[in-house]
Amino acid sequence: MLEVKDLTKTFGSLTAVDDLNFTIKPGEIMGLIGQNGAGKTTTFRIILNLLTPDKGHVHWNERYLTTKTFNKIGYLPEERGLYPKVSVENQLLYFAQLRGKKKSEIKPLIDHWLEKFEVKGKKTDKVKTLSKGNQQKVQLISTLIHQPELIILDEPFSGLDPVNAELLEDGIREAQANGASIIFSSHNMNNVEELCNSLIMLKNGRPVLNGTVKDIRQQFGRTKLFLESELTPEELRQFPGVQRVEKTNDGIDVAYLTETEDGKAIFDAATKNGYIPTFSQQPPTLEEIFKRLAGEKNE
């Protein structure tokens, strides 16, 4: 289990991480979200002992991380770092050896991992001959092939097309099923919603959201109303609490409400003649919450 307690890190007058607390149990995935510069990468670097916190501690299974512990970590940095003139196979062997593995342990696994992530190229190919997407998959394999117990992924989905993103999701879920504790950052809220048991949102280094995706969404109320009825958008805008109305491509009206209770009067009016095809009140999406909390000029 990874435990981050009271973590604070400053750089001069800048507080990069401010009193951060969380735990990730075996088999759990936590998302770390926030605008650029919010403190996500700094948090990862403190966990990896690349930076020393001003206050607080990081424990793995109730102990400080040691050299032996780091052999159980898989880390994918945001700045990818492969050696372009080295073959795929030697690259994977090298990174595994840095994590305390022997060549004889890793070499028989390479073909399986290249096939799992559908890498286009041979293991004898130099990395520079691969496409950018395939290079990224090789780096991901180097993060996972030694079967780490703690996995840290900094923007792992960046630049991946939907097919390769799904391969990555499958790899993360497989590691989760094998009992790994996983933390990743992403600007893609769909990935966070689909994968994470919990999440933390940082703003200026300080956590402003902390909990499960479901609980966080419910905190904001069921203020997003999907409606398919005889009511026109102009009529919807006249109801108390309706902030704005939009129409989806398939003709469903989406009304944004001030409070959950504002939907009751709309329901009564929409159903006065009986059945309607659609009436659904939902919490805002994680992306909408992110934009709401990120600031005036939202990402």
Give a brief outline of the structure.
InterPro entries: AAA+_ATPase, ABC_transporter-like_ATP-bd, ABC_transporter-like_CS, ABC_transporter_ATP-binding, DrrA1/2-like_C, P-loop_NTPase. With 299 residues, this protein is an alpha/beta fold. It has helices spanning 40-47, 67-70, 88-98, 103-106, 110-116, 132-144, 162-177, 189-195, 213-219, 233-237, 263-270, 286-294; strands spanning 2-11, 14-24, 29-33, 55-60, 63-64, 73-76, 150-154, 181-185, 198-203, 206-211, 224-228, 242-247, 253-257, 278-282.
Secondary structure layout:
Layout: E1 2-11, E2 14-24, E3 29-33, H1 40-47, E4 55-60, E5 63-64, H2 67-70, E6 73-76, H3 88-98, H4 103-106, H5 110-116, H6 132-144, E7 150-154, H7 162-177, E8 181-185, H8 189-195, E9 198-203, E10 206-211, H9 213-219, E11 224-228, H10 233-237, E12 242-247, E13 253-257, H11 263-270, E14 278-282, H12 286-294
Parallel strand pairs: 3-8, 3-9, 6-7, 7-8
Antiparallel strand pairs: 1-2, 1-4, 4-5, 9-10, 11-13, 11-14, 12-13
Helix pairs in contact: 3-6, 6-7
Number of helical stretches of at least 4 residues = 12
**Could you say which structural class the secondary elements and strand pairing correspond to?**
alpha/beta
Strand content: 25-35%
User: What is the element string, with H for helices and E for strands?
Assistant: EEEHEEHEHHHHEHEHEEHEHEEHEH
Fraction of residues in H or I helices: 25-40%
Please tell me what the overall shape is.
globular
* Assigned CATH superfamily of the largest domain: P-loop containing nucleotide triphosphate hydrolases
Mean pLDDT comes to 92
